[in-house]
Amino acid sequence: MTSPIPAPGEPLPHYVSTAPFDPYSVEVMTEEQVRVNQASQLRLMWWKFKRHRVALVSGIFLAVLYGMILICEFLAPYNLHTRNMDFIYAPPQRVHFIHEGDFVGPFVYGRTMQLDMDTLKRNYSDNPADIQPVRFFCRGDGYRFWGLFESDLHLVCPAQNGQLFLLGSDRLGRDVLSRIIYGARISLTIGLLGITVSFVLGIVIGGLAGYHGGVFDLVVQRLIEVLQSIPSIPLWLSLAAIMPATWSPILIYLGITVILGLLDWTGLARAVRSKLLALREEDYVLAAQLMGAKSSRIIGRHLVPGFMSHLIATATISIPGMILGETALSFLGLGLRPPITSWGILLTEAKSVSVIAFYPWLLFPTIPVILVILAFNFLGDGLRDAADPYK
């Protein structure tokens, strides 16, 4: 049925609805779509990061490690400097739970040592008659917690008048596991402090070069090219030789941190420069300049936050380089020195091929180095993917 045609001069019929318009009636979104559309940028990044399972597990692993270094004195079975002269180069002990068919709980067997007069190697054998229960939340070697107050509480302790070398002992009878736990505090924090120095230099120098350009940019680029062309080992040698041998361990630690930061800032400075060269032409930068904002404010408040996710991903990838740098310097005898203990210093015990052949457990400090470096690399991959949640 067709509508009647109006006569000439008559108004056309009005078919427009006078009801209020509801925009949500045109396109109805699901609850999931509404949740995504209303989510903030950080929440979107977190959702995408969670989907990267390996990066998430790596982040949790690193968070646990950095939490452990706060209480390493409590976690270590022995004090850092405790020597067991009767158990030099003792191999790792195996933890048992069942003895002759009966459940005893976690324990280790006592050991007897015999010296091989031909090779001068100490041979240890378990004594099944000597059962040494592993104690938990117990009193053991004394220590100064963070150098502030005395305590002797440990998570795990050997039996009374017993031994507990889960990863063996070194040439002075010191527990390798305890020294690895103590060394984590130095090796992990030196990466954070080193990347802080590197970030300050890289963002400031690279930011000024990319924002202002001109002669300053030219000088900075030539300086970066000169530093990157110098071989790493001779550069480490020259910088490490600057530090006097009379410095205290804490000054040596700070000096190595500065050296690692000075070696790593060049790559970050170039990345920041390239980003600022593109961003300085944006309209909001021109608006800030017209309003009288200083260069430091424009760079710090407007330009750097624009690629902060890229900087975070760069940091997680650069920290492993810092840890490897400290390990290499200490292994070569150019870095930290005893009584400071790091994973690199622990590896100096395994310089000799004969030592590695007879006592391979002295290479155990390489395991946390490898795990931490892999975890940081996986975490960096996840953060890099999550930096742009819309892809």
TrEMBL record:
Lineage: superkingdom: Bacteria
Keyword check for Transport: yes
Subcellular locations according to the entry: Cell membrane
Signal peptide: none
Residue span, ABC transmembrane type-1 domain: 184-380
Listed GO CC annotations: plasma membrane
Residues spanning the membrane: 54-76, 186-211, 250-272, 311-336, 356-379
Lineage: Bacteria, Pseudomonadati, Pseudomonadota, Alphaproteobacteria, Hyphomicrobiales
Gene Ontology terms describing biological process: transmembrane transport
Protein name in the entry: Peptide ABC transporter permease
InterPro entries, A to Z: MetI-like, MetI-like_sf, OppC_N
Entry-linked Gene3D superfamilies: MetI-like (1.10.3720.10)
